[in-house]
Amino acid sequence: MNKQGKNRKGITLRSIILSAFIIPPNAYFLINNHVYLSGLPTTISLFYNVIIILTVVIFINFGIKLIIPEGGLSRGELLTVYVMLSIASAMAGHDMLQTVVPALTHAFWYATPENDWQQLFWRYLPNWLTMEISDEITPYYLGDSSLYTSGRLYYWIMPTLWWTSFFTALIVTLVCLSIFFQDQWIRYERLSYPIVHLPTELTNSKNSLFSSRLMWTGFSISASLAILNGIHYLVPNFPIVPNRRYEIGALFLQKPWNAIGWTPIYVLPFAIGLAFFMPLDLSFSVWFFYWFWKGVRILGNAVGFYGLPRFPYADEQTTGAYIAIASFSAWGARHHLKQVFSLKTREYSWAILGFVAGFSFLTFWMMRAGMSVEIILAYLLIYFTIALAITRIRAELGPPTHEMYQSTPHNLLVLSIGTRRLGPRNLTVMSLLWGFNRGYRAHPMPHTLEGFKLADIAQIHRGKLAFAMILAAVIGTLSAYWAFIDMSYRNGAENNPGWGGFNDLQSWLYYPKPTNFIALLFIGIGVLITSALRFMRINFLWWTLHPAGFALTGSTWTVGWLWFSIFISWLVKLVLLKQGGIGAYRRAVPFFMGLLFGDYLIGGSWIIIRQIFNVNTYVFWR
Questions:
Q1: What is the DSSP string of 269-301?
Q2: Which of the listed residues 31, 64, 542, 568 has the most CB atoms within 10 Å of its CB?
Q3: Measured distance CA(88)–CA(110) in Å, rounded
Q4: What is the CA radius of gyration of the chain?
């Protein structure tokens, strides 16, 4: 009996099979959201689609246990489902395959005599990764057709498998990189991993969140708002709660104040709940630096930095900030990393082997696509540096989002080397890779390390969980390709262009760019500011500004939706800690979990209703 109970704590075949069956319809839901830009779940750190699925599985599991006490899933199995679905959702996410798949055909379908793409770069596009114009591609763009003919399936299978091999190697490398740092961050530094608080409590049968009155109070507030606003969308005369209506940027029309730009005042219950688990200094830093960047733009407009059209070079400073955060994270773990690479344990030996194998395959794949070795190595080094920084921020601080729209390997290489020295072949392949470097909001690596944190909590076998993550990524990748291609043949792919990478490529080839020393200077400034913030944080206890806040707010789009909710959460948490201490904070935790849970469950349900019945519904996020 003890042996059986012990085995059921970890990875089981039934939990993997259950996850594998859920992943394809989950991918279809995510791709549909992308097509209609409605309630994008993978632009938030904690995916609401996964929380909804986990909740349904928990309630079904509860019913099974009432009938067959020994037949239900254990906590470890439930968390396995959560982790696998999170990884699969990340692979099918808004800044991952949702913007990769359209690139396979975009350069051919949208080529015109005016843009001259055929002469400009068609010859550099690998035919094993892209889809040239044929009789099979026209219905893909026009719709009212079906994927399921032998000719069309054959047409898509080769590039799909090649891209799947790339993303499999990528996730293997990211999982192994997470293994290198997991003990340092989980057991030695004991980082808080705020994003996993809700799934941890949802699956905790010993101290059930569902029995908390405060949780249900918070749940009722956010759920009521979602229900009322949802009814309003169906019955316009019904009252609405205007929680996301106000935007103050439009009030400032005169220089220099008009540089403030889009500045929404949105009250989002899920964001208030999620931000409550962030450390107080980070939630303060996020809204402070959000306004810091606004102030710098206003100042630049007032002073008249016309010679620097991209001032304050926020994307470049953000890039520098992430490089600094990754460097400090690696330096802080240097003693642990020595143990990792001393091969003292089998787990680390396998992780090193996996990392080398994955990295080698990525290099081979990119070489075969046409990139030169030195550019590949630089590209991957930048990518994994950014991945490490994002993962560290998520593990330590748990921000609701982490968007980095221009902080990408291809942008940094263009700024550093210039387009002439990179050459058209390297630039073309980098444009194909633009999709999974678009914004990093759905980056898979943070989910892998959060998975290992959950494994530590629920005593799940980490090696088996690593295998489950990789399997989830493979199934998720294939499911995303299937969902996107199937939906395009049904509805047409005209609304889903892979424009970003090829528009950049056209600009690079038409207007070659030299090394941008001003941009590199601002990257250096970002490194220096982040280093100074870290120095102050380490040496002065009263210092409250966190360097991650500086990094997270340089890109103001997604954080713009969230900043006011983060401010509200920070203010409430500050008052609680000042007036009632840590005890008051702990007593309030279920209430804020309820705010988050209710908004996710009811708000997300409206998105599901929209997909099933094809009607406009309330969108609680984006």
A1: HHHHHHHTTS-HHHHHHHHHHHHHHHHHHHHHH
A2: 31
A3: 30
A4: 24
Which residue type sits at 252? F
Q: Residue ranges of the alpha helices (H) in 459-555?
A: 462-491, 499-510, 517-539, 547-552
User: Residue 246's beta-bridge partner residues?
Assistant: 265
Torsions phi, psi for 246 (to 5 deg): -95, 140
CA angle 54, 58, 61 (to 5 degrees): 135
Q: What is the pLDDT of residues 564-617, one digit of tens each?
A: 999 999 999 999 999 999 999 999 999 999 999 999 999 999 999 988 888 888
What residue type is assigned to position 297 of the chain?
R
What CA–CA distance (Å, rounded) separates 589 from 573? 10
Q: Which residues pair with 265 in a beta bridge?
A: 246
Q: Please tell me the predicted confidence (pLDDT) of residue 613.
A: 87
Pairing of strands 246-247, 264-265: antiparallel
Distance between CA atoms of residues 373 and 575, nearest Å: 55
**Alpha carbon distance 122, 132 (integer Å):** 10
Token pair recorded at residue 166: 């790339």
Given a cut of 70, the residues of the chain with pLDDT beneath it are: 1-9, 36-37, 306, 495-497
Report the 3 state secondary structure along 340-370.
HCCCCCHHHHHHHHHHHHHHHHHHHHHHHHC
Helical pair 556-598 and 280-303, crossing angle rounded to 10 deg: 150
Burial letters for 217-246: b for 16+ Cβ neighbours within 10 Å, e otherwise? Answer: ebbebbbebbbebbbebeeeeeeeeebbee
- Structural domain spans, the chain: 2-613
Structure tokens given for 390: 């994002």
CA 335/CA 463 separation, integer angstroms: 23
Q: Going by C-beta distance under 8 Å and a sequence separation of 6 or more, which residues neighbour residue 469?
A: 83, 84, 87, 171, 175, 448, 451
Among 205, 174, 208, 206, smallest CA distance to 451 is for 174
Q: Is the overall model pTM greater than 0.85, yes or no?
A: yes
Q: 552 is written with which tokens?
A: 């997270």
